[in-house]
User: Fold this.
Amino acid sequence: MMYAQMVKSTGNAVKSPTEMTEQERAFQARIDAGEKIEPKEWMPDGYRKTLIRQIGQHAHSEIVGQLPEGNWITRAPTLERKAILLAKVQDEAGHGLYLYCAAETLGVSRDELLTALHEGRMKYSSIFNYPTLTWADIGAVGWLVDGAAIMNQVPLQRCSYGPYSRAMVRICKEESFHQRQGYDIMMKMANGSDAQRAMAQDALNRFWYPSLMMFGPSDAESVHSAQSMAWKIKIDTNDGLRQKFVDQTVPQAEYLGLTIPDENVKYNEETGHYDYSDPDWSEFFDVLRGNGPCNKERLGARVKAWENGAWVRDGLMANAAKRSAKVAAE
Ligand code: BYC
Assistant:
């Protein structure tokens, strides 16, 4: 079994109108006019493939994202925190479900998507290859990871593909609750004992740069951005969203009395934004190649869950076959 996500990126230059077929030009005109594209309508092959890749990866991220948080359900410090965390982790399963359903409208089955994940042919978000070592990490994940996820997903509510954009509406509402619960944990820890404050700072130190990486490589390195933005599968650039995230998060850290682990973070009067240091991109690409701290563990857990669930799927299929045989005999 492969643990790496060794998919080679396949970004192409955007076609100019003169290079497009008439059908492609008409399609692009619909996109430019802000129309939604629905499943049964004609779409270029590349548009379909890009959506399957992005929605599929997004769905996988939701499901794999359950693992680092699920790790703390049995160890949540109070009954209330446990109930909240349980609800959040269940929400992630729901998000995975909406997204797999949205991908299925493009003609790919959930089994195919999962097999591609399990065989290392599809990616999931790099962030989930980092461990959650303390309870404060659950706060940092909610605050930073869900915060980054919302920053990326709010604009996707306006994406051109109908089923994806509609799935995003509900996901964003739930993500807002997730971020609030994370920030609430951070407030408690940051205003607690010295040891709790140190845990909160340590969690921020470890999750800061991996959260910045969630937005993807720099615009210069992003192979898909140009075409995806022309198709409105992506609304903003990776660097644009990353900057928005930094601008939103720095004052939140200040409010907590915590320090962003980057001495270059400073408000820039001229640009009206916070300056910040880029993450170590060699680490990002290394995590994508399967070498993050938890890649093996995460994919191993998903494959095991899939194998352990085989008897349920077999039972359901056998039952469905029996039922349809009965209906046919009637
Ligand atoms: N991790 O050309 P680029 C969540 C890949 S979690 C892994 O810029 P694109 C949640 C990229 O796929 C968030 N791989 O690509 C929160 C491409 O490789 P391929 C999940 C990454 O697609 C809490 C290559 O690098 N959200 O919601 O234009 C709990 C070049 O990149 C990453 C989504 O998935 C990464 N961080 O832009 C539970 C949102 N970044 O495919 C769950 C939807 C880049 O050619 N997705 N790569 O082999 C997107 O908005 C875009 O796909 C991205 C990347 C901005 C992520």
Notes: The beta strands are 266-268, 273-275. The chain has 13 helices and two strands. The two ends are 46 Å apart (CA to CA).
